[in-house]
Amino acid sequence: MGLDHSSGGRQLYYPNANPVGAALGGGLARQYDLDNSTRTLQTLLTFRRQIGEAHSFDVVGGYEYNKFTSNLFMAQGIGYFTDAFSFNNLGAAVTRTDSSAAAQSRLVSFLSRVNYGFKDRYFLTGALRYDGSSKFAVGHKWAAFPGISGSWHISQEEFMRAGPFSDLRLRAGWGLQGNPGIAPYSSLLLLAGGTGGTYPWGDQPQTGVTPTQNANPNLKWEQTAQYNVALDFGLWNNRLAGSVEYYVKNTSDLLLSVAVPQPAVVDTVLENVGKLRNHGIEFSLDAVAVSRPGLSWRTGVVFAAERNRVIDLGTHTFLTSGGVSGQGQSGQVSQRIAPDLPLGTFYGPVFTGVADNTLVVGTDTVWKTGQQLFQCNTASATCVNGETRSPTADDYAVIGNANPDFTVGLHNDITTPPWSTPPRGMRSRARISSGPPCRRTIQPVSTNRPSTRPGGSRTDRSCGCRMSRCNTRWTCPS
Fold first, then answer.
1. C-alpha to C-alpha distance for 478 and 469, rounded to whole angstroms
2. For residue 91, what are the CA distances in angstroms to 11, 77, 84, 86?
């Protein structure tokens, strides 16, 4: 049982003396307060049994209850005769507004896992979760997520006893995972008050509400089926250790916001749309560089390369995402989701260069020296020799994606006597990526659902059981 509570606040003031503050109405002060809390109840029942020297069983059953609550309050004042108050006297403002919001959701899970080991060489694991989330529509709140995996501890075989391997293990698995990473009430029609809902009746304005979100009575879990095969190894009493893993993840019922036919209360709705495939390889290598009384140094490298591709979008030819911010960019998007393209694909005008001269056709100036030029597809008065300074939507094309070709991580763990008690050591980390220096705008929301594999890799994105930095809830077999 546990309670996790966090709170935060933000205070800002744009003074009259600042051009921005003056433009906002003669000084603007604003204060935010946000409270988040998580209540958790977890119960586990474990049964272990050794039958002779050959057979071992480990059975776990459990129940989890999580309640998430969020409360937000905001107050704002505009128009101050002095900057001396800063954000500490909102009541002195000419115009005052306030707003508040609250959200609550629940996640309930029934879970079970069975481990079977034979002669400390062969292991089989079966897992089943039955999860329910209040965020989804009625009739779709619950879903089952099974998994199965196995491993062969090759270094325990007699024919490997005399070899250089202190540890050698082959493992493979399959598992189904669910993604509840959406906002509470996403399946419901939401209403909000305010000036947009005010209407006249008689001689007085009446307060009403307006819709802010379309309902989706079919909204359900996004699901990912993952296959993986891996080899873990250790040499010379694990002074050199690592793993190699290949995985394939097939995601269906993607949770995406799509446009809806008009008339509708809102332009978009959250739906389960299409399929996505990820596949990749991960390699990790750790080595004990120094091990002697008074000093221990372990260093390592992690390499990962992943590719993803949208397989299907149902009835949609493409979807847009990656909203662009900035002056004059309202309603602009930078990314397109379409079959055969990876998530994070940038779609827009193709820049060709800067004009080095002024081009005049007849009496019209097409462009001037120093203006940016873009690719165009159809010759016109503004499109000359495949270039224009004002591209249209028909001229847009794929211009790259935000996914790196690969990532490389380096880490060092050094322990010396002065730090022999917690914190136990010093750690340095570095990451090198090859690819465009940008991050994905769209990506599947990760979860802390435990891996169904016996011993996930150290870089397992599903928080496998060998990842010491993950808060996994499973006990891994030997």
1. 19
2. 15, 7, 13, 12
Alpha-carbon Rg for the chain, nearest whole angstrom, is 29
Q: 3-state class of 346 per DSSP? A: strand
Q: What is the DSSP letter of 384?
A: B
pLDDT in tens, 221-255: 999 999 999 999 998 888 899 999 999 999 999 99
| Residue 49 lies inside a defined structural domain of this protein | no
Q: How far apart are CA 45 and CA 366, in angstroms?
A: 76
Characterize 58-92 residue by residue with b for buried, 16 or more Cβ atoms within 10 angstroms of its Cβ, and e for exposed. Answer: bebebebebbbbbeeeebbbbbbeeeebebeebeb
Tens-digit pLDDT profile for residues 298-342: 899 999 999 999 999 888 888 888 888 777 777 788 899 999 999
HEC-encoded secondary structure of 414-445: EECHHHCCCCCCEEEEEEEEECCCCCCCCCCC
Q: Are residues 142 and 228 in the same domain?
A: yes
Do 344 and 283 fall into the same domain? yes
- For residues 184 and 474, give the distance between their C-alpha atoms in angstroms, rounded to a whole number: 28
Residue 425 lies in a domain: yes
pLDDT digits (tens, 9 = 90+) for 408-451: 999 888 887 765 444 444 444 444 444 443 333 333 333 333 33
Closest CA to 178 of 222, 120, 113, 121: 222
Residue 441 to residues 184, 344, 396, 401: CA-CA distances in angstroms?
21, 6, 19, 10
pLDDT of residue 293: 84
C-alpha 123/C-alpha 356 separation (Å) is: 69
Do 166 and 286 have their domain in common? yes
Position of tokens 């490298």?
301
Long-range contacts of 200-204 (CB under 8 A, 24+ apart): none
Q: Tokens 């600042």 — which residue? A: 18
Map tokens 């965020």 to a residue: 135
- Domain shared by 333 and 362, yes or no: no
Q: Is residue 66 part of a domain?
A: no
DSSP notation for 127-188: EEEEEEETTSPTT-SEEEEEEEEEEEEGGGSGGGTTSSEEEEEEEEEEEEEEE--S-TTTTS
Spell out, as residue ranges, where the chain has pLDDT lower than 70. 195, 418-478
Contacts of 422 (CB under 8 A, 6+ apart): none
Same domain assignment for residues 231 and 310: yes
Same-domain status, 337 and 452:
yes
460 located within any domain? yes
Q: pLDDT per residue over 293-309, tens digit each?
A: 888 888 999 999 999 99
Full residue range of the structural domain in which residue 380 is found: 350-395
CA dihedral 297, 298, 299, 305 (to 10 degrees): -160
